[in-house]
Write a structure and sequence with these properties.
single chain, Aminopeptidase, Leucine Aminopeptidase, subunit E, domain 1, about 20% strand, 20 strands, nine-stranded mixed sheet, alpha/beta, 15 helices, elongated
Length: about 500
């Protein structure tokens, strides 16, 4: 879909459909909607009076112009109560409307800057939300389907139409929205791929291709290099698979320091059977998405390279399969992480924290000023927060607060979880420095406490996306399948750190 900004009046735009809006509780059209209504001879006002247009959030009403306007159709988008309007509601309403129009094989649309100048939503914010809603909300993944869709509609162009004095701000917002949305859809593509099409090697090749295209530095460590570095977590988890592990290191250098200002770490388990501690078969096919954190980090780096913030960012993606065979890791085994700490294996299904231990150790060794990891780490977090919120665990309140704010801006909700020292007691081992499972109680927290063993005093936040990386239904701009969480949160965080560094 092409996203463009046009200076002018929405009533004068030639498109298959133009989008205006109405708010719940308003008894007559307002603003650009009133202008379009006059051209239609009061048709919109009449439908409002009759109760057919109520303005409820995500309500879509289409009228035909019958030659009274250059556009063939007028679509009135419900934005709910004006006092409750937010950027995220604009994003969702545009997504719902675009899917509705696509199903009716509408290919060109134009819209007013939905929500601009209401509740502190600036024109640029509105344009960004529109671009994100349109691109995220119309995402599809049909790569492996041979049967054609019954109605293969496609919105080829969306124009955001506003006053000429606003054009620069609208263009900047729309461009940022496009970049971030395309990156999110890239992550969705990677996570939606079957595991036989997204092996660790495939993931590394994808990262290498994207790095070349975006001008990022990339190093891909193989098994022998991991052995030299002492990456016991990676070596242990990968033992049961015939697919070789890959450890990806990407670098974006927009700052002046030699070291990375922040390291983004993403779990890359391309299929998780649980290993010897094998999972139940129900929903096991979803474990192809256990690399969602790694996909999000790769995609975030693509967006960061295009937005060009003045900051240095390192991305680390430890990728392997977790499978059982005669050589696989066993409960009771002891591994040594890259930083020298020993780890007793209680469950081989708690493998993500083992590979992240090496990745966090690598980031620490290379002087990362801050660390954020994203991982589909625990079912316990999914039980606690469902698929609405990502769990945030960390050792630095300022960084946690920044991530929560970045998530709110993106509409990717983040909830802080406790990290009291007492939880770490559950991870104490009788035979090693730490054990990889602390028991059934507080499982998401003890997993985070395990990771904390490998960051020392470096400001760090762990994002558990086990619940939010996947959705089983359409909802606003989220499509059934991979969500792309937390690509937009990570990008917003990095941009905010570049604009206003931590104290």
């Amino acid at each position: 879909m092409e996203i463009k900004v046009t200076a002018g009046d929405i009533a004068g735009i030639d498109a298959d459909a133009i989008l205006v809006n109405h708010f719940e509780g308003m008894k007559s059209p307002d603003g650009e909607t009133a202008t379009v209504d006059r051209a239609l001879g009061g048709a919109v006002a009449q439908l409002i009076k009759q109760g057919e247009i109520k303005g409820k959030l995500n309500e879509v009403t289409m009228l035909h112009s019958f030659g009274k306007l250059p556009a063939a159709r007028v679509v009135v988008v419900g934005l709910g109560k004006k006092s409750d309007l937010s950027v995220n509601k604009v994003r969702g309403a545009v997504a719902e409307t675009c899917r509705w129009l696509r199903a009716r094989e509408i290919s060109t649309i134009a819209t007013v800057p939905q929500g601009a100048n209401i509740n502190k939503i600036g024109p640029g914010d509105a344009a960004q939300a529109i671009a994100e809603g349109a691109l995220l909300g119309t995402y599809t993944f049909r790569k492996h389907m041979t049967k054609k869709e019954d109605k293969p509609g496609e919105i080829k162009r969306l124009s955001i139409v506003g006053a000429g004095r606003l054009k620069a701000r609208l263009e900047k917002g729309a461009d940022k929205g496009r970049i971030i949305s395309e990156a999110t859809n890239l992550a969705r593509d990677m996570v939606n791929e079957p595991a036989n099409y997204m092996t660790p090697t495939d993931m590394a090749e994808t990262a290498a291709r994207l790095a070349r295209e975006q001008g990022l530095e990339i190093t891909i460590l193989d098994l022998e290099q991991m052995k030299k570095l002492g990456m016991g977590g990676m070596l242990g988890v990968s033992r049961g698979s015939r697919q070789p592990p890959k450890f990806m290191v990407l670098n974006y250098k927009g700052g002046t320091a030699k070291e990375p200002d922040i390291a983004l770490v993403g779990k890359g388990i391309t299929f998780d059977s649980g290993g010897i501690s094998i999972k139940p078969s129900d929903k096991l096919e979803e474990m192809k998405g256990d690399m969602a954190g790694g996909a999000a980090v790769i995609a975030a780096m693509v967006a960061i390279s295009q937005l060009k913030p003045k900051i240095n960012v390192m991305a680390l993606i430890p990728a392997t399969e977790n499978l059982p065979d005669g050589n696989a890791l066993k409960p009771g085994d002891v591994l040594t992480a890259m930083n020298g700490k020993t780890m007793e294996i209680i469950s081989t299904d708690a493998e993500g924290r083992l590979v992240l231990a090496d990745a966090l150790s690598y980031a620490k060794k290379h002087g990362a000023g801050k660390m954020v990891d994203a991982a589909t780490l625990t079912g316990a977090c999914r039980i606690a927060l469902g698929d609405i919120c990502t769990g945030a665990f960390g050792n630095n309140q300022e960084l946690i607060d920044r991530i929560i704010a970045a998530g709110n801006e993106a509409g990717e909700l983040v909830w802080q979880m406790p990290m009291f020292d007492e939880y770490g007691e559950q991870n104490k081992s009788d035979v090693a420095d730490v054990k990889n499972v602390g028991g059934r109680l507080a499982g998401a927290i003890t997993a985070a406490k395990f990771l904390a063993e490998f960051v020392d005093d470096t400001p760090w936040v762990h994002l558990d996306i086990a619940g939010t990386s996947l959705t089983d239904k359409e909802r606003g701009y989220q499509i059934k399948g991979a969500t792309g969480v937390p690509v937009r949160t990570l990008v917003n965080l990095v941009v905010s750190l570049a604009q206003k560094p931590s104290k």
